[in-house]
């Protein structure tokens, strides 16, 4: 680090002259430009939900006739359900994992990856989805707040590893060797992942967009209201207005694969 002496001289009537002198780091032009760019940098925070993966063929609890419709939430997606019948819960997530592997990112996932690559600012995706379609589309700044089908977790020691396609109650944890492995999914009643990243991101967002979420699952349903209070412009992209529709300044209705690429194009050409 190079240092430079800065000297200031004030003339104050009736007192005389005051000199102020100090050493300060000599900043390179590149460094100053980096600070200026970061200071003015726009931040976009995007919350995605089931609606964006539905167009890749992945269903939700609310789809009639789908995989989820055959099970009640309390039978497959709570810690109590897993304690009661781990084999059933593993079978359920094994099926979902197999479906997610077959699914391909759609135009909406690809558009968001294009936004992250081409936008002159920060783009963070917070997804409620447990598939890896954002990742496979090319997005790098992704928080999977409800966990991931690709992950396995030890209930005893907390070790995480890549889940095999088929998980069973008899699987052993690679770290502690106990038969206490579970899908790395945040079940109902558990604390979502990434809150230490999500909270400051909402507070500093210039734009908050919600894509394909019903606005019924908390805490994610409160993110739009929180981001808006902290100064973000809020945008909803959805098939129909969500339960928290009043929290949005702007709304685009339609299939995600159509409205998201258009919205991204507008942002990139603005
Ligand atoms: Zn373990």
UniProtKB/TrEMBL annotation:
Cofactor: Zn(2+)
Record text about domains: 2 residues (Tyr-93 and Arg-96) present in a large hydrophobic pocket are probably involved in substrate specificity. They are important for desuccinylation activity, but dispensable for deacetylation activity.
Residues holding Zn(2+): 154, 157, 173, 176
Subcellular location: Cytoplasm
Function: NAD-dependent lysine deacetylase and desuccinylase that specifically removes acetyl and succinyl groups on target proteins. Modulates the activities of several proteins which are inactive in their acylated form.
SUPFAM superfamilies according to UniProt: DHS-like NAD/FAD-binding domain
Chain ranges of the Deacetylase sirtuin-type domain: 21-270
Cofactor remark from the record: Binds 1 zinc ion per subunit.
Gene3D superfamilies: SIR2/SIRT2 'Small Domain, TPP-binding domain
InterPro entries recorded: DHS-like_NAD/FAD-binding_dom, NAD-dep_sirtuin_deacylases, Sirtuin, Sirtuin_cat_small_dom_sf, Sirtuin_class_III, Ssirtuin_cat_dom
Protein family membership: Belongs to the sirtuin family. Class III subfamily.
Keywords: Cytoplasm, Hydrolase, Metal-binding, NAD, Transferase, Zinc
Record field: catalytic activity: N(6)-succinyl-L-lysyl-[protein] + NAD(+) + H2O = 2''-O-succinyl-ADP-D-ribose + nicotinamide + L-lysyl-[protein]; N(6)-acetyl-L-lysyl-[protein] + NAD(+) + H2O = 2''-O-acetyl-ADP-D-ribose + nicotinamide + L-lysyl-[protein]
Organism ancestry: Bacteria, Pseudomonadati, Pseudomonadota, Alphaproteobacteria, Rhodobacterales
Catalytic residues as annotated in Swiss-Prot or TrEMBL: 146
EC number: 2.3.1.286
Coiled coil stretches, renumbered: none
Protein name per UniProt: NAD-dependent protein deacylase
């Amino acid at each position: 680090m190079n240092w430079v002496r800065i000297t200031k001289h004030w003339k104050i009537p009736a007192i005389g002259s005051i000199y102020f002198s100090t050493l300060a780091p000599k900043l390179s032009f590149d460094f100053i430009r980096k600070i200026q760019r970061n200071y003015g940098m726009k931040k976009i925070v995007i919350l995605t939900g089931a609606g964006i993966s539905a167009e890749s063929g992945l269903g939700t609890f609310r789809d009639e006739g789908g995989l989820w419709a055959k099970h009640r939430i309390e039978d497959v997606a709570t810690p109590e359900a897993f304690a009661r019948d781990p084999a059933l819960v593993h079978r359920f997530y094994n099926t979902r994992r197999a479906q997610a592997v077959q699914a391909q990112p759609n135009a909406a996932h690809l558009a968001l990856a294009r936004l992250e690559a081409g936008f002159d600012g920060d783009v963070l995706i917070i997804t409620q989805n447990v598939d890896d379609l954002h990742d496979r589309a090319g997005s790098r700044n992704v928080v999977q707040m409800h966990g991931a089908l690709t992950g396995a977790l030890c209930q005893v020691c907390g070790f995480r590893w890549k889940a095999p396609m088929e998980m069973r109650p008899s699987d052993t944890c690679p770290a502690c060797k106990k038969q206490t492995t579970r899908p790395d999914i945040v079940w109902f009643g558990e604390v979502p992942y990434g809150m230490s990243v999500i909270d400051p991101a909402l507070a500093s967002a210039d734009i908050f967009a919600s894509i394909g979420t019903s606005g019924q699952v908390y805490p994610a349903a409160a993110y739009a209201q929180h981001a808006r209070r902290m100064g973000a412009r809020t945008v909803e992209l959805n098939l129909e207005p969500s339960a928290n529709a009043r929290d949005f300044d702007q709304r685009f209705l339609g299939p995600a694969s159509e409205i998201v690429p258009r919205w991204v194009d507008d942002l990139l050409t603005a």
